Amino acid sequence: MASILSPAPGNVGVVRSIDDKTYVGLRPLSTRTHVAVTRGSKARPLAVVRASSEKEVSVKSSGLSIEECEAAAVAGKFSDPPPLYRPQGPKGTPIVQPLPLTRRPRRNRKSPALRAAFQETTLSPSNFVHPLFIHEGEEDVPIGAMPGCFRLGWRHGLLEEVYKARDVGVNSFVLFPKIPDPLKSQTGDEAYNDNGLVPRAIRLLKDKYPDIVIYTDVALDPYSSDGHDGIVREDGVIMNDETVHQLCRQAVSQARAGADVVSPSDMMDGRILAIRMALDAEGFQDVSIMSYTAKYASAFYGPFREALDSNPRFGDKKTYQMNPANYREALVETEADEAEGADILLVKPGLPYLDIIRLLRDNSSLPIAVYQVSGEYSMIKAGGVLKMIDEEKVMMESLLCLRRAGADIILTYFARQAASVLCGMKGN
Ligand code: PBG
To answer: Where is this region: Disordered (predicted)?
Structure first.
């Protein structure tokens, strides 16, 4: 039994000679046809895996029990290798010579077990961070622009949602508060009120579920009467260093309440180092900083701003959030955040910015987070409601793709629904 590999025209190696009595799967390549060798033959049909269909067909068995097979094997009796069976194409299928290919990548995709074995990226509930909107009220108020999302009452709805998420393996949460208008001001001082909504919610959650991970948003917009992430000067400029001062107080207040990871989403310059020093000065060396490193001035945040009623009162956020046209600039932000002591780097939005996720992944050893933002969520929900797409499949694919691009963790409004699917339950 010898097989000789020799270069065929075009430098492609093909199997020239083979002992075809021994190897069912390695018959010499027929030069005539590769269809229909069993029609009318008495050969037992060997159903093969169909490479072009999701419906897998198993090899027909001899019908013997395991014991009978064992006995036969012990007695040295082995059944003949099944004859080669090539199912036919439909009438009219062209009869062609097999292409002389050394690589047929489809071979590694031909069965569920092979596909699972070679899957490069995985998705798990532990990769998700669940963003939760909270408010002072008792009721859970549905958010029109984000079907399935609510402004949760911080005393009841919040605890219930966390309970349900934990049930499917989601243990990380990020809180976004809806602040009543009378508490908003131009300098956003409610942001560091130790008895404000966020610190109260953190304390309650930590009391009830001590082992969860609580991320907080560090930015002034929910607290700013101008709806901006920083303090607005009389000429409309967003003041950088003065805002950073406020953000430090906000981060320390959140840490004092028990936050595990403070997450500056404001895009002011130098805020990571300032926050690190402020936390350390108060003894919060163990509180992590997840920096919104590459946060773009994106229209995909629209539904979120409706959820929190936090639209900027004038202008836009283009003097602090990044220009969606820019790629290299994300490296400038990455280098700054790394040097300033960020623990996790975040890219936002998600799916339209996969190249930025990969850029950060390849240029930093730190964990990378991505935020699949409100607009991305709402588009998938809307497409599902209109029956234009399969919501569940698109949801799972979008999350997997964010992981493939290089994200370790994903902030996503689908966290609980997707985790339910991963746990083998119907989403929601
Ligand atoms: C503001 C903030 C925003 C989001 C998270 N934090 C909105 C903005 O920058 O205007 C958007 C999240 C989403 O759209 O889901 N600090």
So the answer is: 80-112
CA separation for the pair 418, 96 (Å, rounded): 45
By C-alpha distance, which of 296, 387, 300 is closest to 348? 296
Per-residue b or e along 264-288, where b marks 16 or more CB atoms closer than 10 Å to that residue's CB: bbbbbeebbbbbbebbeeeebeebb
CA-nearest residue for atom 5, ligand 1, is 265
**348 tagged catalytic:** yes
In tens, the pLDDT along 326-341 reads 999 999 999 999 999 9
Q: In whole angstroms, give the CA distance from residue 350 to residue 370.
A: 6
Residue 341 region by backbone torsions, left for phi larger than 0, else alpha for psi between -120 and 50, else beta? left
Percent of the chain whose pLDDT exceeds 70: 85
Q: For residues 92 and 6, give the distance between their C-alpha atoms in angstroms, rounded to a whole number.
A: 34
Q: Given the CA of residue 413, which atom of ligand 1 is nearest to it?
A: 15
Mutate which of 129, 373, 414 for ligand 1? The one with the most ligand atoms within 8 Å of its CB, which is 373
